[in-house]
DNA sequence: GAACCCCTGGTT
DNA sequence: AACCAGGGGTTC
């Protein structure tokens, strides 16, 4: 579900209500989603206070007062909701953190792909450790260099490279399609054919697309809501994603739908080359 | 790299 | 009934 803009929106909506909260109890309802074991997790978390919320790629991180951290990855359908303890548990609730103030943080995930990991900064989980640069918070030269270095070493479509979290963190299926539309480049283009000028254009497009999506509080197609349960608005501003056979908003050509890098992919045959 | 898998639920 | 889905890890 959530890509960088959605996770960032969740972070922003949860920050003010979670900072300073003390964890009173932990309920693990889907054991395979959490690490370490539920018993160890409960022992480590009870009594801890939340001191900061961070985002890294598509991970949301809770920083605790003993320097330990909890990393949530929402995968396709995960939701993080701040709710009164009295609110009945939703179906497919994976984890509940109960606080000392009558509120709780619920991790709800119908498809059960989402994960929760407790760790210390010295030994981050693999997925987090291998992440590429953060597009909005890293200097341009570093991000562009990560893209071009990866491009020199691999084959295949440019879309696959942008989806690779080791190359750049945070882009998923929606925002790669939106980025490549804005950049005027077909998702099927081989990474080897992309020129230096085009990498620059792709980089600029990534910034524009992500910043606008964050302004609109993320894209809600089916499952996504922020930490308060509110949907985003960016679905109203998508340029190509989910517009199969509809007219291109720029030139009127019919938007094409195909499969690239294993994912459903939308592009304009006239605007993108 | 592509293909399959982890799951449930919505759409065709 | 079949296919699709904001992800990504493991296999080929």
Radius of gyration: 20 Å
Counting DSSP H or I runs of 4 or more residues, the number of helices is 7
Low-confidence stretches: none
Strand percentage, roughly? 15-25%
Question: Please, what is the average pLDDT?
Answer: 97
Describe the protein.
The radius of gyration is 20 Å and the shape is globular. By secondary structure, the chain is an alpha+beta fold. Helix 1 packs parallel to helix 7 and helix 6 packs across helix 7. The strands form 3 sheets. Strands 2-9-5-4-3 form a 5-stranded mixed sheet, covered by helices on one side. It has 7 helices and 11 strands. Strand 10 and strand 11 form a beta hairpin. The chain starts with a helix and ends in a 6-residue tail after the last strand. It binds a DNA duplex (12 and 12 nucleotides) through helix 6.
Keywords:
single chain; DNA-binding; 11 strands; alpha+beta; 273 residues; globular; 4-stranded antiparallel beta sheet
Write the layout of secondary structure elements.
Elements: H1 4-18, E1 23-28, E2 34-35, H2 38-45, E3 50-56, E4 59-64, E5 69-73, E6 79-84, E7 93-99, E8 103-108, E9 115-119, H3 126-129, H4 140-153, H5 158-163, H6 173-183, H7 196-215, E10 256-260, E11 263-267
Parallel strand pairs: 2-9
Antiparallel strand pairs: 1-7, 3-4, 4-5, 5-9, 6-8, 7-8, 10-11
Helix pairs in contact: 1-7, 4-7, 6-7
The chain binds a DNA duplex (12 and 12 nucleotides) through residues 1-3, 6, 58, 73-77, 92, 109-114, 126-127, 154-157, 160, 163, 165, 172-175, 218-224, 241, 261-264.
């Amino acid at each position: 579900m959530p890509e960088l803009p959605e996770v960032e929106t969740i972070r922003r909506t949860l920050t003010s209500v979670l900072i300073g909260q003390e964890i009173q109890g932990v309920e693990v309802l889907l054991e395979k989603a959490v690490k370490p074991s539920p018993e160890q997790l409960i022992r480590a978390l009870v009594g801890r206070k939340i001191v900061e919320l961070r985002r890294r790629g598509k991970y949301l991180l809770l920083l605790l007062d003993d320097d330990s951290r909890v990393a949530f990855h929402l995968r396709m359908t995960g939701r993080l909701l701040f709710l009164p303890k009295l609110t009945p548990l939703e179906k497919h609730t994976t984890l509940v953190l109960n606080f000392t103030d009558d509120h709780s943080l619920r991790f709800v995930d119908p498809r059960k792909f989402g994960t929760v990991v407790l760790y210390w900064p010295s030994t981050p989980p693999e997925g987090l450790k291998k992440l590429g640069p953060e597009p909005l918070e890293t200097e341009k030269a570093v991000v562009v260099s990560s893209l071009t270095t990866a491009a020199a070493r691999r084959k295949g479509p440019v879309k696959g490279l942008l989806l690779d979290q080791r190359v750049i963190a945070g882009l998923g299926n929606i925002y790669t399609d939106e980025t490549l539309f804005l950049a005027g480049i077909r998702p099927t283009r081989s990474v080897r054919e992309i020129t230096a000028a085009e990498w620059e254009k792709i980089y600029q497009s990534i910034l524009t697309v992500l910043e606008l999506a964050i302004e609109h509080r993320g894209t809600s197609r089916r499952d996504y809501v922020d930490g308060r349960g509110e949907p985003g608005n960016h679905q109203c501003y998508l340029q190509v994603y989910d517009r199969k056979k509809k007219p291109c908003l720029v030139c009127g050509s019919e938007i094409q739908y195909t499969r690239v890098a294993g994912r459903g992919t939308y592009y304009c045959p006239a605007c993108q080359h």
